[in-house]
Amino acid sequence: MTDLRNDVLQVEYRYTRDKIRQFNLYAKIRTLNSLYLYGSYRYNLLDKWRVDSAYGAVYQAQCWTVGLLVEDINQSPSGTQKKELKVQAYVTFLGMGSLGRPPRLMSL
Question: pLDDT tens digits, residue range 40-99?
């Protein structure tokens, strides 16, 4: 769901018989004319654990954009996924290219 300010709220439910039951929530909120805040939360309903959560911000000026995303990945109950904290940043210059890539979450 998107509104006139380009705010986004996306709620998902994933289901695969006996393998996946997951709740996902994604949001993008425009706080100032040039600043967007992002967030996501994924929860495994089958095993009752938080898969991950992410928080970020994007600032867009006339000819450049800078973004930052912090991703907190939780350890899986089976131990196959270890706890991890990721920080991603990128800068884009209009007409010149970019340094880094926006994470999928930021392209809502």
Answer: 999 999 889 999 999 999 998 888 989 999 999 998 888 888 999 999 998 888 877 666
Identify which of 92, 91, 105 has the alpha carbon closest to the alpha carbon of residue 38.
105
CA gap 88, 85 in Å, rounded: 10
Nearest-5° angle of CA 41, CA 47, CA 51? 25
Three state DSSP letters for the chain: CECCCCCEEEEEEEEECCCEEEEEEEEEEECCCCEEEEEEEEEECCCCEEEEEEEEEEEECCCEEEEEEEEEECCCCCCCCCCEEEEEEEEEECCCEEECCCCHHHHC
| Residue found by looking up tokens 């920080």 in the block | 87
The pLDDT tens digits of the residues spanning 17-33 come to 878 899 999 999 999 88
- Distance CA(36)–CA(90), nearest Å, equals 14
